[in-house]
Design goal:
Radius of gyration: 27 Å
CATH topology of the largest domain: Beta-Lactamase
Number of helices: 13
CATH architecture of the largest domain: 2-Layer Sandwich
Order of helices and strands: HHHEEHHHEEEEHHHHEHHEEEH
Strand content: 15-25%
CATH superfamily of the largest domain: GAF domain
Largest sheet: 5 strands, antiparallel
Length: 335
């Protein structure tokens, strides 16, 4: 493909992204400074069609990009604009409001991205064995029960009510909390099962059974941590003409409600990925593009944010926005 054909393909894709209408040679000649006549553009478009980069959706129509054309555009031609400083500030302010747990932060992120892009947004958390216990706090609830509150380095906060064989007051809770923090602080989920709980409990023999009960509660509470998914703006897709077919739109909307599918869809992603049309596995997704990016704690992936929309989405703008938001989430979690 020569330079002229590259410029024409880029113009076709940009115009189709903006309008959703098939693009003809006269439109390109009138709207874009390509430096050649409409007839020359028409001839070059014929060559692009032979290369499989554009297609004619129906007789007497202009041309639209094929999946192959979109892929070439995304990999080689796409511009990725910077996020404006005022928008960056808005994003940070909106996310900080929900920064009490990973789940609430991620749910707010999905809502924010759906609002800013007008596409469907899916976000997942990824339970990882490298999550560390940051702090444990025991609080008496009533005569013979205590609440065990566990904070991790990912801001996940879990709690568990434990029945106790004896009355536990605030003073004993403080003693046990300090003891558990000394022994378990910095321990990863992966290493919890390797702990010698009996040996640990021997250090406070008068409270051995209580310590073992609390330890079991900590293990079961953290190991019950499952992947959560948040879907926002699913009905946004109905605004695009590609989903005017009610049955196809219904199939896609139903798919976006299936948690196991969404977890599988996003769980194997790393970094920023783009799946276009036929690159997606299930039929309802073949009229869509999926853009995902991951957010991390150090080297560990904590979750994924994905956008689902028509193949003619503004890839550069969407990727810039997703990566910036993932960067902000990573910073918030790190801090």
């Amino acid at each position: 493909m020569n330079e002229r054909q590259t410029r024409i393909l880029e113009a076709i894709i940009q115009d189709y992204i903006q309008t959703g209408d098939p693009v003809g040679s006269r439109t390109l000649s009138r709207k874009y400074d390509l430096g050649v006549s409409s007839a020359t553009i028409r001839n070059e478009m014929a060559d692009l069609e032979e290369l499989g980069l554009i297609v004619q959706p129906y007789t007497s129509a202009g041309r639209i990009p094929s999946d192959k054309g979109y892929r070439l555009y995304v990999d080689n031609l796409m511009n990725r604009p910077n996020i404006a400083p005022d928008l960056q500030e808005i994003i940070v302010n909106m996310l900080q409001v929900k920064m009490n747990t990973i789940d609430t932060l991620l749910e707010e992120t999905a809502r924010l991205v759906a609002m800013m892009t007008n596409y469907a947004t899916v976000a997942t958390t990824s339970p990882i064995q490298e999550i560390e216990i940051k702090h444990i706090q025991l609080v008496p609830v009533d005569y013979k029960s205590v609440a065990c509150v566990i904070v991790t380095n990912t801001t996940i906060v879990k709690h568990h009510i434990i029945s106790t064989p004896m009355q536990v007051d605030y003073e004993l809770c403080l003693v046990l909390s300090n003891f558990l923090n000394d022994y378990l602080g910095g321990t990863t989920l992966n290493n919890l099962n390797n702990k010698d709980w009996q040996e640990m409990a021997k250090k406070l023999p008068e409270h051995k059974q209580l310590i073992l009960d609390i330890a079991n509660a900590i293990v079961s509470t953290l190991q019950d941590e499952t992947t959560n998914t948040f879907t926002k703006g699913a009905t946004n897709i109905l605004a695009f003409q590609e989903f005017n077919d009610i049955s196809k739109a219904k199939e896609l909307l139903e798919l976006l409600e299936e948690k196991p599918y969404l977890i599988n869809l996003l769980s194997k992603k790393n970094g920023t990925t783009i799946c276009i049309g036929e690159e997606n596995n299930l039929e309802p997704m073949k009229q869509c593009s999926l853009i995902t990016t991951t957010y991390k704690l150090g080297e560990y992936t904590l979750g994924t944010i994905g956008i689902i929309g028509p193949k003619r989405m503004d890839y550069g703008q969407v990727i810039s926005l997703l990566e910036h938001i993932a960067y902000q989430i990573t910073n918030m979690v790190d801090n």
